[in-house]
Each structure stands twice: as C-alpha cells, then as structure tokens.
Amino acid sequence: MTHPTLRRVLFCALLLTGSGLAQETPSSPPPAVPAPLPASTLRGLWIDAFGPGLKTRAQAQRTVDDAVRMGVNTLFVQAVRRGDCLCLNSTYPPVTDPDLEKNFDPLAVMVKLGHARGLRVIAWVSVTGAFNTNAPNTDPRHVFRTHGPDAGAQSWMARRPDGTWQEGRDGWLDVGLPAVQDYVTQGLVSLVRNYAVDGVQLDRIRYPDGDVWGYDLRVLARYRAETGATGTPAVDDPAWADWKRQQVTNLVRRVALEVKAVRSSAWISAATITYLEPPRVGDLVSFRRTRTYWDVLQDWPTWMNEGLLDLNVLMNYKRDPIESQGAWFDGWNSFAQSMSARPDGTRARVAAGSAMYLNAPEVTAAQARRAVAAGLGWVGYSYRTPTAAVYGERETGAQGLETVRRLLTAPGEPLAVPAPWTDAPPTVRGVLGRVTGTPVPGGHRVEAWQGGRLVARAVTDGNGYYGFATLPAGPVEVRVSGQRWADRVPVRGVVRLPDLLLRTAATGAASP
C-alpha cells in the first residue's frame, strides 16, 4: 500500500551524538477510562471439520438450518484444520478427505448460506496444527510434506529437547521460526481477501502442552543470538519461556494488523486456554501462575489490552458436577472481563465457550445462562457433538442437538429470543511497518509518538515487523534507531509504512 509523499517526512536524528531522541523524555498520556459495555448478544456454535457438517452441500445446508432453529447468530466454521483448508481459494492446500464432495468449497458455501439467514460466519483456523496420523493430507504442497520432520534445514516442526516432534497423533509448527510466522499470516490474509467472512478465529495459537517445546536447532540459535544466552536452556528456564511467549504474541500482532489492513471490519478472535483454577479477578500476577501462561505460553490479557484481539472466546471447558469446576467456569469468565479494558478507552469483547461435548444438556444450559447473565457472549463446542452422550456415541447428533435446543430456547433461556449479533469490532485501525537491514540482538526498539508524547513502544519480530493497534486517529511519528517517520493513523484501516532500511554507521545512514 502506498501513500502520498507529502504526508511523509523522514528526519535523521543523531542518537549517538546526544541530540534528538536521546534528549526527549516525555511521559505517556493517562489511559482513557473505558466505557461500560452493554451485554453481548453473541450466541455461537463451533462447526468442526472432523465429522459430518461441512463436507457436502447438503450437510452445509442442514448445519445452517439447525443453527437458525437453535437461535444462534454466529458460526465459527473450521476453515483450516491442520495446514489444509476446507476451501478452494487460499494459500493453504485443500483438505484431502474422501468424504468431501468433489469441487465443493465449504467455506464459500457456509458464508453464502449463513449470511442469507442473518448469521455471521467466522473462519476458525488451527494456527500451528500441521499433521495428524489419522488424517494426513496427501497434497504435495501441504506444509507437512514440504516442511515436515524429514525436511532437514527446512523443517518447521516444534520439537522437544531430544528432537522428537510428535504430540500424541499431532505435529505442530514452531512459531519461533520467522518462516512459520510468514506462512501463517499469508494463509489467514488469503482467507479474508478471498472470502466474505466476518472475521478469523485463531485456535492453537500457542505451544503444545507439556512445557518442553521449542528446541528446533534454528530456534535455539535465534534465541541465543537475540538474548546472549549460552548453551541449551532448561525447560523451566523463565527467560526461555518469556522469549517463546513473545513469539506467540508477535504472531498475533502480525496477523491482526495484516488482516485489518485488508478489511478493518473483520473480527480478530482467538479460542484461548483456561486450564484448571482461574486467576483472581484483575490480578495479572495470579494469571502468570496458570498453565495458560507458563505451559502453553499464551498471554491473552496482553493481546486484549493491546487491541490485538477484538473477541476472546474462552475455551472454558469445565464440567459443573465435578469438584469445583462450576466455580472455575465462572471465575475464568470474570477474570477475562476484568482484562478487557484498553488504553484507548475501548474494550475487547469476551465470550464463554462451553464444552457441550463433555456435559449433559442441563449443564450446557446452566453455563450459557450464567455467561449471558454476566454480560458475556456464549459459544458452544460443538455442533457435531452437542452432548456428552453424542460424544460417547450413546445417542445421535440430531437427538443431542434437539435436546440442547429445547433447553436453550425455553422461555427465559439464553436462546429463547433470537437476536442478531451486530457489534462492530473495537479495533478498527492501526500502524504496521517493517525494519530491514542490519539486525540487532533482540530486535529493534520502535516508538510511536503523538502530540509530542511517547504513546506506545514495540520491538520488531523475527521478520522485522512492528505494529500498534490502539493509537488514536491522527498524526503519528514512528521512531527507530535514530530515525523518524511521520504519517497519519487513519480513522479506519491500517496504515502500512514503507520498509525502513537500517544500516550500521559504517555503511551509512538509514533510508526508507
């Protein structure tokens, strides 16, 4: 994306001589007071791709009809399963499944059918999923075939310290590899560019369970180069965990801004982890003791605070009758709500995701009731397995869905009065740029200045990208390594700054 030259000004600031940036120490403005949010009307279903529901035109029509009868207003449709797409027009290869109808584009059809019935359709993407032994993709373009465990220096697999890569039946991509971040971003952008989806949802936007991942040799070499660490970090090394966690956040930032650059009205959502006991409301210290933070390396409160997530759908998979899990369900919901405020005065949206497949219909209805009463949205997992009895193959999917529907649509229940979800995403603008040239350990420090004040800081990722998503509209000056680049944050959309080439003092000044 190009911008008129007159809108840009490039200044050379001489940090090394003590002038310019080095002499300025302004303070950031106080954060805006967030406005209270009305109760969310989001009522959704996850539509997974591991069984019937999306594989033929007839199934797609029935899925949409069932969703309308149930009273939901949003479908989280699995678009990317494990490096392959239930679609025909993206950078991912199509799913190879003998049950998939020939020349059928499930995502396109679900968008068309859903929109015709007033439903929003979110493309649900398994970000780091790459392989499953039960359902391998046979397309030679598939990521597991081009960058799998036997690809040598081209392998992108997350690995344990002993070099093994398989987690159960699955293989995962390592987000610590810059090439993986490019691959994921391009795939997600292609979905938004080629399909009229209402947004994207990031699933498996994390490391695998177990706290022992990230030991690809190139990831380790990058970690040492950026931090100055020596040797191989222990699995419980907090600095190592912090670095890997930052790679996950960097990918969320890149995806969010790249997608918003294509369509500012697209929702950026994530299906997030809520293992075990909840943190205390408003307490980030207690959150950082949870497995969400230290095991799978998700820092979703930061994603919400920085405007990278419009919608956090908690995978709040609890079974009320077991021990304290009902209280855990409510506690995670309350904690997420307490993390929703952002510096620009907006709030991220929160929805509770219920594990319909683990519970009796009465428990699902009770969880949906409590979530909605707290002002949250609600999403059920999943359409294909709507009850524990269906999951355990003790009743049919149609039987289970009908029981759940009757409970959720009874008078006074959350789906009794169907209503559209009409919220607009809270993040509608941003700034995205890239620094190229001479790398520096740990990335380049980037600052955003508005009105003569420092308003945000960032660090470039492994590909040199940086970005900001909560800046007010108006003039902005981006400063990095003694250089200043002036532009304007739009009212809507993402301004894409030109690449900034930085050279060392020996090779000359930086240039855009």
Describe the model.
The protein starts with 8 loop residues before the first strand and ends in a 10-residue tail after the last strand. A hairpin with a 2-residue loop joins strand 14 (445-450) and strand 15 (453-459). The chain folds into two domains: 5-30 and 428-502, Immunoglobulins (Immunoglobulin-like, Sandwich), CATH 2.60.40; 43-408, Glycosidases (TIM Barrel), CATH 3.20.20. It has an eight-stranded parallel barrel, surrounded by five helices. The radius of gyration is 23 Å and the shape is globular. Helix 1 runs parallel beside helix 2 (106-116), helix 4 (178-194) packs parallel to helix 6 and helix 11 (361-373) runs parallel beside helix 13 (397-408). The chain has 512 residues and is of the alpha/beta class. The chain has helices spanning 57-70, 106-116, 143-147, 178-194, 217-227, 238-262, 284-287, 291-294, 300-305, 325-338, 361-373, 388-391, 397-408; strands spanning 9-12, 43-47, 74-80, 120-126, 129-132, 166-167, 170-172, 199-203, 267-273, 311-315, 349-355, 377-381, 429-437, 445-450, 453-459, 465-468, 474-480, 483-489, 493-496, 500-502. It has 13 helices and 20 strands.
